[in-house]
């Protein structure tokens, strides 16, 4: 019998702008997920400390103070796992793998990245992927990640990698994950449909991109979005003033099969929910008969992919290499 796991996206909102309490919430959700039999759980984009929706609705000069506070609440990883250690410990204790979206702050510095941290079932931090191209106003917040963290990690739940939000539109980035024989794709998103101008198009865009990668990469896509809750809206109004460009709700979360069927979801709106489905790796062979984008369907004699994997940032090699599992007593 082939390998089977239960994978899930968690459609949830953070405790906005509060790293400590959001990590505590993440741990609660991981425990709930394990109780539901989940082996691999994917969190939304920058779940800790929350997606900075204020960049979509206020002028940069107005949110400069909020930006500094956001950096302060961002996650430091470093060589040991840093702020992620409590999550690494619970993964080891419960034997569950996690991909969690974080705003990541360099150790001892002020630069931040839109990142995804991959943690295995033994608590090992497999590595961190830094979004290589922040979108539009995001560039006022986050630095560009390098090709060095664009990778797939072997894990106990399969070969896992991911991209954040519109990074999923970057065909060369997707192809690089395909070349590394990705099996499970962790796609992290914010609640785009709540942002002015995207109400009628965001969900359709996300669905198209997620199904496209599932089929063209022959991977299971675990798509996790957050939603805008009252706490986020109240924080922005209290600290930055009234606004009407970001509303409550939103998000699009689902699990998609390599042959493009939706296995769980989609789920939208301001309701916390696990979207879970069984991944049966034996089914992949039946898909690969038709299309194998890392093998017989790639036409290497015609197409060449060149990716510069040189580290750009001093700590690229450190975060991409991950961190050892913390000691967890099982007595």
UniProtKB/TrEMBL annotation:
Record: active site: 45
Stretches assigned to the CN hydrolase domain: 5-281
Molecular function GO labels: hydro-lyase activity; nitrilase activity
SUPFAM superfamilies: Carbon-nitrogen hydrolase
InterPro entries the record matches: C-N_Hydrolase, C-N_Hydrolase_sf, Nitrilase/CN_hydratase_CS, Nitrilases_CHs
Short name of any one Pfam family annotated for the protein: CN_hydrolase
Domain of life: Eukaryota
Family named by the database record: Belongs to the carbon-nitrogen hydrolase superfamily. Nitrilase family.
Name of this chain's protein: CN hydrolase domain-containing protein
Organism, as annotated: Sclerotinia sclerotiorum (strain ATCC 18683 / 1980 / Ss-1)
């Amino acid at each position: 019998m082939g390998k089977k796991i239960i994978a899930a996206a968690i459609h949830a909102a953070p405790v906005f702008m509060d790293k400590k309490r959001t990590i505590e919430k993440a741990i609660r959700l991981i425990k709930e997920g394990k109780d539901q039999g989940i082996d691999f759980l994917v969190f939304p984009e920058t779940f800790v400390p929350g997606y900075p929706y204020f960049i979509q609705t206020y002028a940069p000069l107005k949110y400069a103070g909020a930006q500094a506070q956001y950096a302060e609440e961002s996650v430091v990883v470093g060589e040991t796992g840093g702020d992620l250690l409590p999550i690494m410990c619970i993964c080891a204790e419960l034997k569950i793998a996690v991909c969690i979206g974080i705003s990541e702050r360099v150790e001892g510095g002020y630069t931040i990245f839109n990142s995804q941290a991959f943690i295995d079932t033994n608590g090992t931090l497999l590595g961190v992927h830094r979004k290589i191209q922040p979108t539009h106003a995001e560039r006022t917040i986050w630095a560009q990640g390098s090709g060095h963290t664009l990778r797939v990690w072997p894990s106990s739940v399969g070969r896992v990698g991911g991209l954040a939000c519109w990074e999923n539109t970057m065909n060369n980035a997707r192809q690089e994950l395909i070349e590394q024989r990705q099996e499970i794709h962790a796609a992290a998103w914010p609640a785009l449909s709540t942002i002015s101008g995207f109400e009628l198009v965001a969900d359709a865009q996300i669905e198209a991109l997620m199904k496209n990668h599932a089929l063209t990469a022959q991977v299971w896509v675990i798509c996790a979005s957050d939603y805008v809750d009252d706490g986020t809206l109240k924080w922005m109004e209290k600290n930055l003033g009234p606004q009407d460009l970001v509303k409550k709700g939103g998000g699009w979360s689902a699990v998609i099969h390599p042959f493009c069927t939706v296995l769980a979801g989609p789920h939208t709106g301001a309701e916390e929910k696990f979207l879970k489905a069984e991944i049966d790796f034996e089914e992949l062979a039946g898909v690969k008969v038709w299309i194998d984008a890392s093998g017989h369907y790639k036409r290497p004699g015609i197409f060449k992919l060149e990716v510069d994997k040189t580290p750009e940032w001093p700590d690229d090699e450190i975060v991409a290499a991950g961190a050892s599992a913390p000691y967890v007593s099982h007595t």
